[in-house]
């Protein structure tokens, strides 16, 4: 075991909204997901079943981001393996704010579970639950065709994926 510690997060949950994708100036892709996980238990006093839903902000980089944006939709069940990361940023009033996210990069995993029909059914169930709104980074306003014509510059994470032999293939 490493003396530096282990930072690994595994989640299985359902998307609360369609993935948001944006593109870095270098051409890399970044997808942001709102993932709901639920825990249920029986209340000892009343005997009623209780449920608590946690919302997780997931940020996916590289080809997995493109796959998530293309194939995932609100309600889809997904397996995520990544690392916790806390970002510091300033709001409009200049106050420091922090946002903890699960980051999925070249070392992480995103796997779609269930079927598209399941996603639509779960989306209906999630309609009453809204994730906490967090500030969004600026979104790209380029059309899909404009994004496809971006220069071929790639961030290190994308280059690392190609070294691993994924190329244009889906890594699962």
From TrEMBL:
Gene3D superfamilies: Nucleic acid-binding proteins. GO terms for molecular function: single-stranded DNA binding. Residues 125-172 are annotated as: Disordered. Signal peptide: none annotated. One of its GO terms (cellular component) is nucleoid. GO terms for biological process: DNA replication. It comes from Xenorhabdus vietnamensis. It holds the Pfam family SSB. Keywords: DNA-binding. InterPro entries: NA-bd_OB-fold, Primosome_PriB/ssb, ssDNA-bd. The lineage of its organism: Bacteria, Pseudomonadati, Pseudomonadota, Gammaproteobacteria, Enterobacterales. This is Single-stranded DNA-binding protein. Residues 55-61 bind DNA. PROSITE patterns: SSB. Homotetramer.
